[in-house]
Design goal:
Layout: E1 4-8, E2 13-17, E3 23-27, E4 32-35, E5 38-41, H1 57-63, E6 66-73, E7 76-83
Antiparallel strand pairs: 1-2, 2-3, 3-4, 4-5, 6-7
Length: 85
């Protein structure tokens, strides 16, 4: 997706910076994200099961300018992420 991602272990925060300068910060367990310093409500809080950070993919993708389409097939969920040209 062409973004840089950083992890702050002490703050339990993940920061994603896009090529266009958008900066998004999310904290494990918090439903508040910050996009360019502005508070936004997440549909669910980021989690860290098994030492892997999990974030709300639709929120992150849309902030980064992508369209997310999901469909369930055979009990699995398939996600197609398309960026606008």
């Amino acid at each position: 997706m062409g973004q840089s991602v950083s992890w702050d272990k002490n703050k339990q925060q993940v920061t994603i910076q896009s090529n266009d300068g958008t900066v998004m910060t999310m904290t494990i367990g918090s439903t508040t994200a910050y996009v360019n310093g502005e508070a936004k409500i997440l549909p669910s809080a980021p989690e860290m099961p098994f030492m892997r950070v999990m974030v709300p993919i639709r929120f992150v993708s849309e902030v980064l300018g992508a369209t997310v389409n999901a469909s369930a097939k055979d009990g699995a969920t398939y996600v197609d992420i398309s960026f606008k040209p």
